[in-house]
Inverse folding.
């Protein structure tokens, strides 16, 4: 797997663009500058890997746009050793960003083919998240609670299991909406267990679907 000077140069340009678009968290920008995003795409799209757009990753799914990955990650305010649950492993790119930030990552994917393919790639890249083939609507109760939860597909509603599995002072970032676009939503749980909701504008995601698919 190749990561050459050209790829590195393109990543620097991408980081400059993300800064212009309002991403300020230097740890998030450093992770994006480091991770070879082109390795997460089908070879046919490698030329475009560092454009700020989403791409197909097979099984009818997409790798999120870099700005969206940066925006959601910035909202999460990851601290080293945070226990983080990701719903929608997909290509594993967002997973890698979370790993780079020092999080202990648990990630769920409902499509078997993507789950298997991404498991191999992340191992090759020496990232060590715990990957699960399952239904993200249910979260991962046996490993709860999580300091942070990120959903990377558009959810028609906020799955109750996810707010239940959120730790005290935890944060859930989830795009909510059933149509063409979703509203980026942040749910925080205070130390009495009370949930507070805040929204951050429109984004476009593939839908969060129920149950596993082989
Ligand atoms: N984080 C990914 C984004 C992939 S798109 C990346 O960086 O590439 C969203 C992913 O969510 C798809 O792979 C899709 O198969 C998965 N997904 C959809 N519904 C799901 C569910 N209920 N549980 C787990 N994963 C789901």
């Amino acid at each position: 797997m190749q990561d050459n000077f050209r790829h590195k140069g393109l990543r620097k340009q991408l980081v400059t663009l993300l800064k212009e678009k309002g991403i300020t968290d230097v740890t998030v920008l450093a992770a994006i500058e480091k991770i070879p995003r082109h390795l997460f795409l089908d070879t046919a799209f490698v030329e475009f890997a560092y454009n700020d757009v989403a791409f197909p990753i097979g099984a009818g799914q997409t790798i999120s746009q870099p700005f969206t990955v940066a925006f959601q990650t910035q909202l999460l305010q990851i601290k080293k050793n945070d226990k983080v649950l990701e719903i929608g492993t997909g290509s594993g790119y967002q997973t890698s960003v979370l790993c780079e930030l020092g999080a202990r990552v648990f990630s769920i994917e409902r499509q078997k083919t993507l789950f298997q393919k991404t498991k191999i790639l992340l191992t090759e890249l020496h990232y060590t998240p715990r990957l699960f083939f399952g239904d993200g609507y249910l979260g991962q109760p046996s490993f709860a609670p999580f300091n942070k939860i990120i959903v990377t597909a558009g959810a028609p509603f906020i799955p109750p299991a996810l707010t239940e599995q959120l730790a005290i002072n935890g944060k859930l970032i989830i795009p909510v909406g059933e149509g063409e676009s979703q509203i980026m939503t942040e749910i925080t749980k205070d130390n009495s267990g009370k949930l507070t909701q805040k929204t951050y504008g429109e984004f476009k995601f593939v839908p969060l679907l129920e149950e596993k698919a082989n």
About this structure: The beta strands are 55-58, 61-63, 83-87, 104-109, 130-133, 146-151, 166-176, 182-189, 195-203. Residues 57, 61-64, 87-88, 90-91, 93-94, 108-111, 114, 135-137, 152-153, 206, 208-210 surround S-adenosyl-L-homocysteine (CB under 6 Å).
